[in-house]
Amino acid sequence: MSGVTYDYETYGSLVRSGGWIVFHDIVHHEDWMGCHVDLLWKGIKLQNPNSTFEIIRDDAQGLAGIGVLCKK
After folding, report:
1. Distance, CA of 33 to CA of 55 (rounded, Å)
2. Is the model's pLDDT at 38 over the cut of 80?
């Protein structure tokens, strides 16, 4: 399990309903230091299509980007 998945599953329950969970480095990229935020974010978006938004300058930027989940 990647670190970001562990953090999300462990600490996500501490965020109250209506609270925000914010992820960074959500743009798809080559494996960078074993970080797979992009893969976790893709799954979160699919499960919560009306509760997420992104801040991305360019999908081809190869790293970065912010993803925001409003917890229900």
Report:
1. 22
2. yes
